[in-house]
């Protein structure tokens, strides 16, 4: 006879939440889940939620510590009851009352009759009548579990009941001819395939049966007595050697289930014409890529996001167990004998072990007997573990089976008292991240080569233009030489003509002194003109470049010189006429000669002006020539600088390529090492499917511990200086990994000074001010909290505006982990009395108290530690005499906050609050605030009820030494 107890057992949940940052002192919390008896309505109460915070949104915060269960969520096992229709034997029963079950589905209750006048009432999560459809049963019992599995959680759906009450019909009905009759197994796979992408996600199944305490593979019958493997570190149970088949569509799944059902053991008994003689377990393994809001996106949207590169590079791995248990039966009723009798014994034995585990969990026993049966070992995650579990119990209405029906109902009632802790299994998709980095590097290399080609083309074009300029310069220079030679010849001719004219004028010197003086001035003017022309010719030889405009100017000068020649000729003619006139009419026309000489003087002055203009033009040409020469020198210098810049950029490009190949080689070597370890473990343990075998489970557990720090270790091997430089990268992923590496290094005291010297502190503060990424805010704040433990670094952080940045981050985020890091950093700064005024001015104290509104216990613990540090420093300054006046904390409402949180559950947090109050009370200037706010009563309580003797003594001493407190106590 089967035991009246029920489903599977697993390890009971205990969460040990601990801080993942070395600089923040937070107490560990152990969470216990206790069960209680049924309430007056017959419905077992739900266990209270733990005080620990909700799970973090960042994948690495889970994977960094496999034992950290801060992301767990409690979920009670949900139980539904289904009554099968009455059959012919039930109708022909001769019992005093035909049915022993009375249903109240609207109240989710059923009554179990003991006789015609007495009945017991029981409440379940759902009650199904004999007319309930297969679809409704699936949507109420199984669909919430299937949706949870698709989102990354483990799940279990199980049917339990007496033989012949419809368990296999509810769970495994294929419904090939009538889709409305499909059971939970087919409908679950239909939903899973509809909500996963065939290109990005993987859906695989194993179909097993537990027959005579031996695990057999229904998809590969030759595999018998499959061993159960358990990871000693994670407690994960796996079946190495079981066949695992990847599912493409629903038709393939239906074929596989039909094959499995044909291999399952069944027999004809008095209770059921086709009674299952084994427990059937369908195991569905799902691996999904997490892309943005992957939980709500359709597969087509997720494919589109992956193609556009907007992936989060994380994987969700989950497992769904669909269990069709063999029915419990009485040997006398089933008529089993011989081999069938042995089958019945093993079935009842495994169900009895399952019932013991349920009883132990329901009664909060310290020992859970999971190893009494292979069934309980395989299902250890379903009851008291981390899976979301739904149980449907099936019963018959006939009073003939009252004892079995009562046993089944009590099994369900005890199962409803079991609470599981749901965990999301999420890890980085490093292969996708590596491919993304490789694509980015390939793009940068191609872009660099394209720019290099453009620079080479520009260089060739500049060289061609330089050759053209040189040729043009040579041509112009030759042309100028020829022109200058022509000017020199003409000047010589002018000189000879001027000399002849002077000779003629000297003949008139004796006759007219005035004419002599004029001729002398003319000679001096002509000599000056000659000198100017000679200077102009020397300047012309220095010209480097010319244009048509210059040729035009030179032509104009030539015309002017020709005009001068004509004027000189006219002057010679006039002089000749003057000579003749002087010889013929010297006396009679002396006055007329003077007038003509005056005219000649005016003409000579005009010639002088023309010569001066010519000299000015030559001077301007000389200036332009100098400018052209300097411009040529500047072009040559720019060309040389451009060549140097190109060579430097080429060296930088090669250096970047070398660094990338080194980084890629290190990632590849680590990937190869993990693959080698996995392959060796596979050879030692036999054929194992990836992700679910024993050997690879051990490898995955190792990788889970090492996966997150792997990229950070690579950055550390590259070097601290280069790692800090990568904090300024434009790539968000590179920034995140770099800041994690710096945070890991900052956790060691020996590295902190090097980090500050290399500019790591400046880079971290820059990230806090410029980045909007939550992960960067959290990790950078944690690194600053580590650095802030050194008094030397505390001053640097304040001088660079670190407290102001931390206060801004606290006002912008509601992430509990980020707030905890920020609060820890400010709490460390509060331990330096020299910084108190600056912390107050930068708003850090106000921000620290404001973070208490988050309600997170870890954040409140850091706030209390900061208050204790601040108050302790003030108290020391007051006692030593270099500080006076009311506490700076009171202006931001610190006293009220401390009083409101005195009754907090955490012993370490309460100790910090009590210590802060005692130190604040030692300052006599703070006494009026204590009296007006009623805080003296809290000091009295601390002096008698505090768990720490040193705090009690400090409170007693403070109350005794302050008269104002004494008078308040008397009142």
CATH architect. name of one domain: 3-Layer(aba) Sandwich
Shape: elongated
> What fraction, in percent, of the residue positions are helical?
55-70%
CATH topology of one domain: Kinesin
Please state the CA-atom Rg, rounded to the nearest Å.
50 Å
Number of strands: 21
Distance between the termini: 74 Å
The averaged pLDDT comes out at: 77
Subcellular location: Cytoplasm, Cytoskeleton
GO molecular function: ATP binding; microtubule binding; plus-end-directed microtubule motor activity
Protein name: Kinesin-like protein
Keywords: ATP-binding, Coiled coil, Cytoplasm, Cytoskeleton, Microtubule, Motor protein, Nucleotide-binding, Repeat
């Amino acid at each position: 006879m089967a035991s009246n107890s029920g489903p599977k057992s697993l390890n009971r949940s205990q969460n040990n939440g601990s801080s993942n940052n070395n600089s923040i002192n937070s107490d560990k919390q152990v969470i216990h889940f206790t069960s209680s008896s049924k309430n007056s309505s017959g419905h077992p109460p739900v266990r209270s939620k733990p005080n620990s915070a909700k799970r973090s949104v960042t994948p690495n915060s889970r994977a960094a510590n496999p034992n950290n269960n801060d992301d767990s969520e409690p979920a009670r096992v949900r139980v539904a009851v289904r009554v099968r229709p009455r059959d012919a034997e039930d109708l022909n029963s001769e019992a005093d009352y035909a049915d022993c079950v009375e249903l109240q589905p609207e109240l989710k209750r059923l009554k179990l009759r003991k006789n015609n006048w007495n009945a017991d009432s029981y409440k379940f999560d759902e009650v199904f009548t004999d007319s309930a459809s297969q679809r409704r049963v699936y949507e109420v019992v199984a669909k919430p579990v299937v949706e949870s599995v698709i989102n990354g959680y483990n799940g279990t759906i199980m049917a339990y009941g007496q033989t012949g009450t419809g368990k296999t019909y509810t769970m495994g009905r294929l419904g090939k001819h009538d889709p409305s009759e499909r059971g939970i197994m087919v409908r679950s796979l239909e939903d899973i395939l509809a909500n996963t992408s065939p290109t990005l996600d993987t859906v695989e199944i194993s179909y097993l049966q537990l027959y005579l305490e031996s695990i057999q593979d229904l998809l590969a019958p030759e595999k018998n007595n499959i061993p159960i493997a358990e990871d000693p570190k994670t407690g994960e149970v796996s079946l190495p050697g079981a066949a695992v088949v990847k599912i493409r569509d629903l038709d393939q799944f239906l074929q596989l289930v039909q094959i499995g059902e044909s291999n399952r053991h069944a027999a004809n008994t008095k209770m059921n014409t086709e009674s299952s003689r084994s427990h059937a377990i369908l195991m569905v393994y799902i691996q999904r890529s997490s892309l943005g809001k992957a939980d709500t996106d359709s597969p087509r949207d997720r494919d589109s996001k992956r193609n556009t590169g907007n992936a989060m590079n994380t994987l969700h791995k989950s497992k769904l167990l669909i269990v069709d248990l063999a029915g419990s039966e009485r040997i006398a009723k089933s008529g089993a004998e011989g081999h069938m009798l042995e089958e019945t014994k093993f079935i009842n034995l495994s169900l009895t072990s399952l019932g013991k585990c349920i009883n132990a969990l329901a009664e909060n026993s310290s020992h859970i007997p999971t190893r009494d049966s292979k069934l309980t070992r395989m299902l250890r995650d379903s009851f008291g573990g981390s899976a979301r579990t739904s149980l449907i119990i099936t019963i018959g209405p006939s009073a003939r089976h009252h004892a079995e029906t009562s046993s089944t109902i009590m099994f369900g009632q005890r199962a409803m008292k079991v609470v599981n802790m749901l965990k999301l299994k999420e890890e980085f998709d490093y292969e996708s991240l590596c491919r993304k980095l490789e694509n980015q590097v390939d793009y940068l290399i191609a872009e660099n080569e394209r720019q290099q080609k453009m620079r080479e083309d520009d260089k060739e074009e500049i060289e061609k233009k330089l050759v053209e300029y040189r040729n043009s310069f040579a041509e112009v220079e030759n042309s100028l030489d020829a022109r200058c030679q022509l000017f020199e010849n003409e000047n010589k001719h002018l000189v000879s003509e001027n000399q002849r004219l002077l000779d003629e004028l000297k003949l008139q010197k004796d006759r007219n002194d005035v004419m002599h003086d004029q001729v002398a001035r003319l000679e001096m003017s002509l000599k000056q003109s000659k000198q100017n022309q000679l200077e102009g010719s020397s300047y012309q030889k220095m010209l480097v470049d010319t244009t048509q405009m210059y040729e035009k100017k030179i032509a104009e000068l030539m015309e002017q010189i020709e005009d001068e020649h004509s004027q000189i000729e006219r002057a010679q003619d006039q002089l000749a006429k003057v000579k003749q006139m002087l010889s013929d009419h010297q006396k009679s026309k002396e006055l007329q000669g003077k007038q003509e000489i005056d005219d000649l003087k005016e003409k000579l002055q005009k010639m002088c002006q023309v010569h001066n203009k010519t000299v000015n033009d030559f001077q301007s040409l000389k200036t332009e020539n100098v400018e052209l020469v300097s411009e040529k020198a500047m072009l040559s210098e720019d060309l040389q600088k451009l060549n140097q810049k190109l060579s430097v950029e080429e060296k930088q490009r090669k250096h970047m390529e070398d660094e990338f190949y080194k980084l890629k080689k290190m990632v590849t070597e680590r990937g190869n090492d993990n693959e080698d370890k996995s392959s060796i473990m596979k050879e030692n343990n036999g054929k194992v499917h990836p992700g679910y075998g024993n050997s690879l489970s051990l490898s995955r557990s190792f990788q889970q511990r090492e996966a997150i720090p792997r990229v950070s270790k690579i950055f550390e091997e590259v070097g601290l200086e280069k790692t800090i430089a990568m904090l300024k990268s434009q790539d968000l992923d590179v920034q995140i990994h770099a800041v994690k590496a710096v945070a890991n290094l900052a956790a060691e005291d020996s590295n902190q000074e090097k980090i500050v010297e290399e500019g790591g502190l400046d880079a971290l503060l820059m990230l806090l001010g410029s980045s909007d990424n939550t992960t960067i805010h959290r990790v950078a704040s944690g690194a600053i909290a580590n650095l802030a433990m050194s008094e030397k670094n505390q001053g640097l952080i304040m001088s660079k505006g670190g407290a102001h940045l931390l206060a801004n981050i606290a006002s912008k985020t509601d992430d509990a982990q980020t707030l905890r890091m920020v609060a820890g950093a400010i709490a460390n700064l509060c331990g330096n009395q020299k910084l108190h005024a600056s912390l107050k001015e930068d708003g850090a104290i106000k921000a620290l108290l404001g973070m208490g509104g988050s309600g997170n216990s870890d954040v409140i613990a850091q706030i209390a530690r900061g208050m204790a540090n601040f108050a302790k420093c003030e108290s020391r300054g007051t006692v030593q005499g270099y500080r006076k006046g009311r506490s700076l904390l009171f202006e931001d409402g610190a006293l009220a906050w401390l009083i409101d949180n005195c009754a907090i559950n955490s012993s370490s947090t309460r100790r910090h609050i009590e210590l802060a109050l005692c130190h604040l009370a030692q300052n006599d200037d703070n006494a009026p605030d204590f009296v007006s706010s009623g805080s003296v009563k809290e000091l009295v309580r601390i002096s008698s009820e505090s768990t720490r003797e040193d705090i009690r003594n400090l409170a007693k001493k403070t109350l005794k030494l302050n008269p104002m407190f004494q008078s308040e106590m008397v009142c």
